[in-house]
Amino acid sequence: MSQDQPPEALLPLTPAVFHILLALSTAERHGYGIMQEIAATTGNQMRIGPGTLYRSIKQLLSAGMITEANERPDPEMDDERRRYYRLTQHGRKVAQAEALRLARLVRAAEARRLLPGTSSEPGMDGTL
Amino acid sequence: MNATQTNGSRSSWALRFSVALYGRLLVMYPRSFRREYGTQMLQVFRDCSREAARTRGPVGLCRYWLVATSDLIVSALAEHRQEEMHMTRSRWISLGSLSAALGGGIAVLFATIQILMSIAQLLDEQSGIGLALFPAHLAFWAAPALWVLYILALVGLQAHGADQMRILGWVGITFAILGGVIAGLGNGVTSTVLYSQANSCVSLLDCNFYDPGGYMMMGYMVGLLGSALFAIGMVLYGIVALRRRFLAWGNWIPLVLGLTPLLLIAASVIAAIASGGTDYAGSQKIAIVLDTAALVPAIFWVLLGLAMRGNGHGQVVMPPTSPAPVEPIVS
Predict the structure, then answer these.
(1) Which domains does chain B have, with CATH numbers?
(2) Which of A25, A123, B54, B291 is packed most tightly, with the most Cβ within 10 A?
(3) Which helix (H) or strand (E) holds B182?
(4) What's the rounded Cα separation, in Å, for the pair A2 and A7?
(5) How far is A108 from chain B (nearest CA, A)?
(6) 3-state class of B176 per DSSP?
(7) Is residue A120 part of a domain?
(8) Contact A35/B326, CB-based, under 8 Å?
(9) Residue A12 lies in a domain
(10) Measured between CB atoms, which of B48, B318, B325 is closest to A35?
(11) How far is B207 from chain A (nearest CA, A)?
(12) What is the ipTM of this complex?
């Protein structure tokens, strides 16, 4: 089963899946809350639709990376039909492994002067 | 009624219409997915479209519809494809699991009967050779049929680990299936010759076969080649299974199953060395050694069948790496 697998075996994650894991790494959230967090994290650069969101949630649930939270942050303030999700220990490890993989990629890009501010070529360092 | 109120009521009507329409469009998803997540998706759509309409008015709502529609089409198609694949894979896994358990079970039964018969005759020579040969005939006849079941089991095993096998796993399982087919054909030829002339046997290891064409030897050699291919394939697959752990338990079983032909080879060598000039009791002892060597892989086939059922009765756990559509929007 996926939960028995080492986190590295599940990489790379799709952007949607990684963003959902990131959103749940700080708090339990419902679907719309996850979308808001993704929008805030990416500065509205990335938006996922309800279909993609719940397909990814379904896959994450079956892989044991997230689970439905039994308790609501504040039942009186919230629509009781909403389902809250939280990151599992396995999900956290997978997210960490993916973050590490991406960090290595960024370092490789830096070493090849592909990031703005690291290139000697005109126009590649963020200035014209 | 002033202009603000009119705009507000239009916007509210558009929002209600949008939500109702999106609710209808959810029918594009598979029923099980809709039942599980339909309400949640509709709620998210309502929240998002309300937010879009609040911040950017009708234009924002239209823009959100573009995002939601493309997401709906792409994700509904992907979900249908995944569900279909999931169902097909689940069926193959169930069939494979059943085949492994059934094939292994039959082999265990035959091997056990033969061991008991040999022991009985070892204790009492007069117990009747014809009775002892009966299960032997059945076993010979059943060998190719067992390979058919084992091949189905291997296909199920392939479906089980399809997401995580990597190239070595694919090579391994392909070798194992190919080996199974070749061994089944070889055993089929040998069994046909043996079964048609079984009456020429005076004991399990003392038969006078008429085989001028050398079909029996050819079938035996082809069977050996198939078994060797199967063994190599299962060892390769077994190594990957141990590393990737795609069975709920018993990920060591494929590797051990791949190594069991070594046991059979060892038993055959012992039989070949010991059979020259041996007496009746000696031949029974050799038969016991051979049947015990055949019993071991049969037990592991049964265990493999049970292990394949381990993930919730053939349910496939899809990894989170399967493609999910994402729409990057540059504002």
Answers:
(1) 8-79 (no CATH), 95-308 (1.20.1070)
(2) B291
(3) helix B166-196
(4) 9
(5) 23
(6) helix
(7) no
(8) no
(9) yes
(10) B48
(11) 50
(12) 0.84
